[in-house]
Amino acid sequence: MSATVDVTRQRSHSAGTFWIPFAFVAVLACLWALASPLFSVPDENAHATKAIAQVRGELVGAAEAGKKYLVVDLPPGYHYNHSAMCYLFVPTKSAHCAARFGDGTGTAYFENWVGAYNPIYYYLVGWPSLLTDNGSVGVYAMRIASALLGALLLAWAFQAALSSIRARWLPFGLLLVTGPMVLYLLGSVNPNGVEIAAAAALWASLLRLLERHDDRLEAVWSSLPTWYLWLIVTVSSILLANARSVGPLWLVVVVGACVAITGLRAAKAFFTRGRNYLWIGAIAVGTLFAGVWTLATNGAGAQAGTADAPLVGKGFFSGFAAMIRFTPGFLQQQLGVFGWLDTPLPWILYAAISIAIGVLVLLALTGTNRHSAIVIVSALAASILIPAIVQALTISRTGLIWQGRYGLFLFLAIPLLAAWMLSTPAGARVAFLSVRVTWIGLALAGAFSIVAFFAVMRRYVTGFGEGIGAMFHPDWQPPLGWEVLLGLYILAVAGFVLWLGFRARRIAALDDGRTVPAAALRG
Known about the structure:
By secondary structure, the protein is mainly α. The chain has helices at about 1-10, 15-35, 45-55, 120-125, 135-160, 170-175, 180-185, 190-210, 225-245, 245-260, 265-270, 275-295, 315-325, 325-335, 345-365, 370-400, 410-420, 435-460, 480-510, 520; strands at about 70-75, 110, 335-340, 345. The strands form two sheets. It has a two-stranded antiparallel ribbon with strand order 1-2. The longest helix is centred in the last third of the chain and has 31 residues, at about 480-510.
């Protein structure tokens, strides 16, 4: 009886599994937004100036004679000075030399290599710049808008994933998805962060929605209503498809993988229910817009010159081989290489987080069944091969321009799917380990996030050329000061880890002793 009561109460906790992760992720991403200098995130100068111009009516930049890229106009208070990025690629140098954005010393235009990108993200994050003529304040506000949008999507991922009692390993997997590299990108003006968060929301919600179409799983259906799961699937799909030019392909990859994971029975019921096509139609319209925009604006990119990137003009096999050769570097970037790839972390941090991910994956490979092992091996292969194939297909035109963050949504699917498969009956053999391993893994992931946050701030406050003690006599300070930001970050990470740990323990206790009537879990 007590298990039945707990399962019934799960419905009342649905809001908590949204708002609590939203609050933690929003705080952490906003702290990242304040911790690093403006434009210290890859391509943020281009994305920010596009958003500033676009919300003022300049949908795409203008082609001008003698200019390599489209030109966007910038209003007073937002003039751009290239010395704002004087510290790039010199990790021993602090951000003290940077000119303040909008201080009146820059130019009223920006040659923008993302000037023709899909406009949806830029409308969603660019509007705060309309509220102030102070360029620095405006860009920080845009960073926060991006952080809140990403927090919404990741909170949906948490809510969908934790909405079933079949979720005992998912708190661990979800915290790995919400790592410092993801939070760093969310706290910047760059659609890459929202792309990753949208993919995470889609993975979790679509898997739960497909489970709902398998009547054999009725006893463990998500406690969320079907329409709500569809809402998450639809919004996240459209945002994923429109985040970057390759978005429609990423949408196909995620949807295809989810269908393959849940099986033919669920897929058949899913695609034969007429009312589902209202939602599918909305996704199709959003995806069609993304494709039309890319084709109409040549968003896939023009022919690069040999001086623009390595391997321009080379063939598929040369590009594929290069991508495979650089895979270890891409993996390091996905775990956390910050700035314009000029701020790596100490090797011990990569080792610690790799152990946490590796243990989860190893348990999924050895402690489940053949189907689950195939899912994990396929995810591992896809995270390497799909980026290699995509880049190789365009290598002649673009050259080798791939960075680890472009395929981060595929890499993060590995721990998420490992936790997912371990949470099914296939993981019953190792279920007794879930609470202990989750607590240890959460502690490792939390420590990794805190030290990464400190290391990145140190890089900009004093540069890596100075000892840690020099931070108490800083060359540069972020808003509120690095000490305050670090203290708040430690508190937020600790709170998040504790909530997830106790949540994992509660789910495990419920799963171990459940007697679940079907009606109790229907939305």
